[in-house]
Amino acid sequence: MSITTAVREIERLAQDALRMMGVPFPAAERAMHAVTWAEAVHGRGLEFLMAREADIRATAAAVPRLISESDDAAVIDAGGASLLTMGPPALDLATALARTCGVGEVRVTRSFGLMFAGELVHWAAGRGLGCVAICSAPATDDPFELHGSFSTTPGALLRFRKTPAQSDAVAEMPTLILQCFAPGHVESIPVDGEDLNARFDAALRHGMKSPTAAFDHVAALALRIRQPTSERSRNQAG
Fold this sequence. Notes:
It is built from 9 helices and 10 strands. It is α+β, with helices and mostly antiparallel strands. The chain has an 8-stranded mixed β-sheet with strand order 2-3-4-8-5-6-7-9.
């Protein structure tokens, strides 16, 4: 069963639910856009929060650790946390490298939730950058781990090109390679693949169909953070 939801509604629920899971407010505020984008494009943003709640809670306080860095590239250890919280700082670093060197690449290891990589590419385009996100997922049936690449150039469509995972090269955890390109360096970005912009635009105009079970689960989490948790707070609430 499904329920029709609106973009702003999902943003609000996602932010509050993530805070209830222990994600700090600034990170939850940024991550709500990724959840909403994934709900509109993949139909699985809320389902991810429900299915991976325990993992999100366990890594809520994780911070990215810089393993190595050169003039135009870096490697980040996500500490087992999802791209909801590890993706934005990786994009910020790739953005800074691209604006300095023309092209910047950041590899994110020990993370999960590769379907959110497309939202990072979408965000990069809003910064006037070209961007490619190369997702390498283990050969499993996990619907949240896509194997392929998202790509866009400023003012162009956001596309996804799916490639099959290699069963003989199974990694312990998914890996993301995020490449940002400053204007004048976007010629090498692939332009083929499925257009994803249309899905998000349709969600903005008409709403989207969300699984009822996932919506109810996330809504219940969101409601809990709004409820008074002590006698004093109940009194203050009137």
